[in-house]
Amino acid sequence: MNLVVFFLSLGISCRITRFITKDTLAAGIRSWVAARFGDDSKPAYLVTCGWCTSVWVAAAVAPLGFWAGETVAFQLVAMILTLSYLTGLAANWLD
After folding, report:
1. Of 22, 48, 85, which is closest to residue 93 (Cα–Cα)?
2. Half-sphere exposure (CA, 13 Å, Cβ side) for 93?
3. Exposed site from 25, 26, 33, 66, fewest CB < 10 Å?
4. Rounded to whole angstroms, what are the CA distances from 79 to 7, 37, 67, 68, 93?
């Protein structure tokens, strides 16, 4: 895996983790997990803890980057997600 694929995979992991744990669009998923398993359950903690979720997201992204990292499709999707994450960071920092 080259450095470009590594950093794009990092960007994917950051964006998906942020989506699951913080974004309003995924609030329904977090609410469903809390209602299903309880607010103090390990699954509810998993979908709200960035550190915890990132392990599982990275475990899925790493093999994908290894096998498909050189493809145009992977790099395009990865670039979109990475730029989305970086733009969100910049917007928060600039506000």
Report:
1. 85
2. 6
3. 25
4. 10, 35, 17, 14, 21
Written as tens digits, the pLDDT of the chain (95 aa) is 699 999 999 999 999 999 999 999 999 999 999 999 999 999 999 999 999 999 999 999 999 999 999 999 999 999 999 999 999 999 989 88
Report d(CA 95, CA 41) in Å as an integer.
34
52 closest CA partner among 74, 67, 30 = 30
Length of the chain: 95
Determine the Cα–Cα distance for residues 63 and 48; give it in Å rounded to an integer.
Answer: 24
pLDDT score of 1:
64
